[in-house]
Every structure is written in structure tokens, then in C-alpha cells.
Amino acid sequence: MSRTPTDVPEPGRSTVARRTVLGAMAAGAAAPGLLALSSPASASPAVPAASAVPARQPSALPGGGDLGPNVIVFDPSTPGIQARLDQVFHQQESAQFGTGRYAFLFKPGTYSGLNAQLGFYTSIAGLGLSPDDTAINGDVTVDAGWFNGNATQNFWRSAENLALTPVSGTNRWAVAQAAPFRRMHIKGGLNLAPNGYGWASGGYIADSRIDGSVGPYSQQQWYTRDSSVGGWVNAVWNMVFSGVQGAPAQSFPNPPYTTLDTTPVSREKPFLYLNGSEYRVFLPEKRTNARGVTWGNGTPRGSSLPLSQFYVAKPGVTAATLNAALTQGLHLLLTPGIYHLDQPIQVNRAGTVVLGLGYATLVPDNGVTVLRTADVDGVRLAGFLIDAGPVNSATLLEVGPAGASADHSANPTTVQDVFVRIGGAGAGKATTSMVINSRHTIVDHTWIWRADHGTGVGWETNRADYGIRVNGDDVLATGLFVEHFNKYDVQWYGQRGRTIFFQNEKAYDAPNQAAIQNGSVKGYAAYKVADSVTTHEGWGLGSYCYYNVDPTIVQHNGFAAPNKPGVKFHDLLVVSLGGQGQYEHVVNETGAPTSGTSTVPSTVVSYP
Fold it and tell me: pTM here?
């Protein structure tokens, strides 16, 4: 439902944010004349190098090279920076389901007088080892003017590895899902609401320092990990912190702060940087019981790889070529664009990096799985979007084969800023979007979304029964967003699983009660822990319903799990948005039902 100008909340007031069903936005074609990035001559590394690439045959695919026309690189002497930023923003501002994909990269140095407004499928990042190496006296802005002040559809954009001194003292970052804010230093405050404090439904911050206060205002929920904040202004429904210096104290549900002193295990996302004139990819090391940023005391800890050890992929490349590069021993760097795949990308080598820039998008053309990994140590998957194709895929991403059992505790696989979409940009179908089989995998910020608006949307048109299925033991999810699946959004079969922050909406478009009936149970839980599980724990988990096609639908609960001492939940909530459907309980048979049209969460602080 659209928000009218008279329906704008004051800062801090609880709001209901729903996404109006839209048609597909105009496609965004690549802007002409954008700067290309080439890999310059090598320089000595500033950090230890990761393992070398095996010797290549004469016919081997080359590593390194040009990153294509939609990676736009600036240095402080580049003329017309603001004009180029504006050019891409005007193209991408409302291109929600368009084809444009862009990455802005800023070389270390100081920049002044800039306002980088970010539209859809646009990433901005500094090229230093520390955010403070790339200083912008200006702003990196996300607002919602394109959608009448409603920020609930500000998806698919990112900011990383920059230091900002905002012009007004406060930077605005009014985003929704799939819009990570990583390794940022804000020398001032951060406002997470759109101008006018309209609806907002984000979001995610990691490894960042905000010297001033963070004001979420109308944001319904937010997750902040391993960061430092000067203060936190308010909360609506669900604000979760782990390893955050300056976070508010635990107080759920009033105010609804869930605060963990540390993050049990974390490893930051790989990132591109410059060492002298050489481009490299930095691989941060794993941390246990992490707290605060990784970059506060000089060079971050980890290793790095030269660009020459990456196959630099461009749209139009075949899956066979990508697999040949992997077999050869190269890693993959996916430059911005849309990639069509007729067979799975198969990652078999331990330590392989698959890193996307500018929301590189992978589409299965004939019902294949997009990417599979072997049951090996230390794979890093980061920074790309998987868009289901019109032929049903049984799965879209598989981490480890079925039955995977190797111990990866010393060097886990990480899945970071890997997003999945079924429908919206066109008809798409997938039975299960993401399957995690390998033990100790860390899923750090994902949005797995069966589209509720756009093109190719309907109860059967973009059929997708399950969002994520976790079969592996000892898996940790930090920042799990899964929405609108026809049946279970999350199924967890592995032992000793943990989730810190979960955001969910049940599918809006269920035609009637019968369509979601789960045997004798009314509806499929958003988050289902299998009856065989004996140990599981979750913190700060929320599920919302908005059954606008049939508002009489009843959902028995948001969370379902075996009633065992080792299965524990902290700070759960369910919400009926404006009375469009109702929950009978929060978890199992526990928790009060939602009531009427009040849009007041029903909460459970501790279960059992």
C-alpha cells in the first residue's frame, strides 16, 4: 500500500511498511563511455599472499586483465566525478528490475564535495586496505524520492571500505534488504530512514565505525555485526547487535534490542584493493568471539591474492569457460552484468574465491543449479545475485554435496552478500533456493526472496516452495532474510545450528487457507527446526504476515521446533500487518496470538 503525504510518522514512531505491488521498472542499459579498469603492473604485496596457482598449460585461460566498462574507477584527480555518479544514478534510480549493473571504485586519497546517490544494482567501494585510506568529504546517499518517500524497495546496492565526513554531519542510508554497508567509517551520524521518515524495512551493517549516533527511526528491523557506534537512537520491532561496541543494552521487547556481546564466529567479506599500482583481493581471516572492527589498528589480518590469480569474467562467458578456469586453478571475479548459465559452476578446490562486483547476476537458463561446491575448506562466495530462470531449478545454490560431513571448523566456507530472487524481473521458479550441506558454513547476510511484485509474479507463476535448507551441522547464519516462499522459508536439519537475526514475511499472495495448509497445521512456519535436531539456538527472529489476497488466513505459528532442552530461542516476534491474516502463536504453542489490525508484535523473550 502506498503511503500518502499525510501518513508520515514522526521519528521513532512504530510504522507498518509494506511494499506496493509494482510493474517491472524500465530496464537500465549500460551507459556509454564508462571507464574501464585494467590490471596494472605488479607490485610487492603488503600482506601475505595466499597459495599460488598451479602451473598452467600453454592454452590456459588468462588471469587478470580488464574489468569491463561498468567498473568505473576514480582517483582524486579524475575530472567530472560528480557528473559520472549522477549519470549512473539517474539511469538506476528506479530501474528495480532493469539490466544495468555498476561498480564505482575510488582509489586511496581524499575527495571533496561529492554526493554519491546510489540506485539499483550499484556498488561503491574504496580501494584501500583500510576505509580511512579513501576519504570522501561528502555523502553516499540512499533515499526514496523515486518511490514517494517509501524506502521498502531500496534493494540491491552496497557501500564498502570508505571513510565519509558527511556535509550535514549525518549520512543518509535508507535501504531495505540486500543493501550491505561494510567496512565503512562515518565521521558523524548515520540516518537509516528516508527523507520524511517514511516506511523502511532494512538492513545490515558489518565491520563499520559510526562515530556519531545511528538513527533507524522508521526502520522496522536491523542487524549490526562486529562494529562500533557512538549511539543508537530508537527501535521499532527488532534491532539486533552482535559484537558491536556502543550497542544498546539487551532489553527486548521494550525497547526491542537484542544484544550479544560478541559474534561467535565471523570472517569478513573479500574485497578488491590497490597495493601500489597492483590490484589484489584481500581475504580477511576468521575471528572467534569477535567484537568491533577488523581495521581499527592498521592493516587488517588476513592474506591476499593478485588479480592475475582470478579469471575476470564478463557477461556472455559460458559456464564451461568458468569451470575451465576453476579447473585450471583460477579464482573467479564476476564483473558487473547478467550471466546466463546452462550448467552449474562447480567449485571443487579448497580456498576458492568467487567474488562479484556491481551485483553480477547469475541466471540458470534450463533449470540447472547455478553453483555447487565440493566439501572442501575455505570457499568464499560473495557479492552476487542469483535470479531464477523460467524452467524450475531443483536448487539454485548448493554448498557441499548431500551427506557432506568433513570438519571445516578451522577454515569454514562463507556465503556473504549472496542474494537469491525468484520472479520480479520475469518468470522464475526454484523448488529450494539455497542448500547448505557443508559443516561450519557461515551464511553472513543473505536475502532469499520469492518476489511479491514485478513481472512473473503469482502463487504458481513464480512457485518456490522453500527458501533455505540447512543440512550441515554447526552452521551459523548472521543476518538471515528469507521471504514469501510457498511453504517453509527456512528448514534446519543440521545439529548445533545458530542464527543471529532473522527477518521474514510469509507469502502475501496465498489464495486461501487451503493453499497453505500443512497437513493438520495452519500454514508452514517461517522457520522450521526438524524434529531430529537436539541442539539449536536463535536470537532476534521475526516473522510477519500480510495475507492481502485472503485476509482471513490463519498462520498457526511463525516458528516451529522440537521441544527439547538444547533447542533454544531468544527474542522472537510475529506481527500481523494491518490485520491481513493472523498468527495463533509465536513458537510452537507458545506466545499470544496477534490481534486485529493493531500491528503490535506478539513476542516471546525465551523459549522454552
Answer: 0.92
